[in-house]
Amino acid sequence: MASHDQSYRAGETKGRAEEKTGEMMDTARDKAEATKDQAGSHLSDKAEAAKHKASEAAEATKEKASEMSRSAHETTEAGKERTAGVLHGTGEKIKGMAEGTKESVKHAFGMADPGDEADPDRRAD
Prior knowledge:
Shape: rod-shaped
Low-confidence stretches: none
Number of helices: 1
Radius of gyration: 50 Å
Order of helices and strands: H
Distance between the termini: 144 Å
Helix content: over 70%
Structural class: mainly alpha
Largest sheet: none
């Protein structure tokens, strides 16, 4: 009977070993799944941080472009004002020269007013 008893115990030991192996496999599978979830969460956090950083960079670029646009507009306006001043001054000079030329021509042809004959180079201001 010893052999029957030994066979029974061997089968029982084998069954416990298989059960223990199954439990260990389940535990390992659970740990692997938890690690996978944790890694996925970590990657998701990293992706979210990268997305946020990209959004901040885009906003900073937009603000810089707006600032440059305002600066260009102000420079253009200042240039327009300077150009208007130069053109006005040039127009006044040409007007004065034309007036002087008119007076010179009048004197040359004897058409000048009697009081203007004293100074043919006088310009009207």
